[in-house]
Amino acid sequence: MNHLSRITKVMLISALALISQPLLAEQYVAHGNYEIHYNAFNSTFVQPDVAQTLGLQRSKRKALVNVSVLKVDGTTKTPVTALVSGTATNLIQQTQNMTFKKVDEGNAIYYLGQFGFSDQQVIRLSLKVQPNPNQPAYTVNFEQKFYEE
Q: Fewer CB atoms inside 10 A, N or C side of the chain?
């Protein structure tokens, strides 16, 4: 990858991060010395060029889950890598397994997973996040209603 395309990719990834920041609303859980930040949003919120660069599918019936893990040491928070997996389950127990894609910006690390939904559908999301391979994964569960955009 040449230098210019790397800069373009970093700018596009940063744009994705900016899109998701207002949606975060400080949704996180603390486990030991880790903070697991998460949010979910419709894939149409991601600009087409950003989605293409990251290999994401944009659709009015596709959503994204964004997960990041910070290691807390006093007042310092450092992004760390983790193993992330998860499922998206609707209210009639139809489950989709999500594969997460790592996005490493250097000063920020994100994991993005996708799933499908129907308009006005409540989805229960269950994430397994393992920042330390020598310790069990942490579980994060939340539910959210999704709308076609």
A: N
16 phi and psi, to 5 degrees?
-60, -45
Please state the rounded mean pLDDT for residues 46-65.
95
State how far the Cα of 89 lies from the Cα of 18, in Å rounded to an integer: 27
What local confidence, expressed as pLDDT, does residue 25 receive? 56
- What span, in angstroms and rounded, lies between the C-alpha atoms of 27 and 56? 23
Distances (CA, A) of 102 to 16, 56, 91, 141: 13, 12, 28, 20
pLDDT digit string (tens) for 81-116?
999 999 999 999 999 999 999 999 889 999 999 999
Supply the range of the domain harboring residue 140: 3-146
Nearest to 114 by CA among 58, 69, 72: 58
Average pLDDT on 12-20 reads 49
| Count of domains forming the chain | 1
Q: What is the mean pLDDT of the segment spanning 38-50? A: 95
Q: How far apart are CA 118 and CA 145, in angstroms?
A: 10
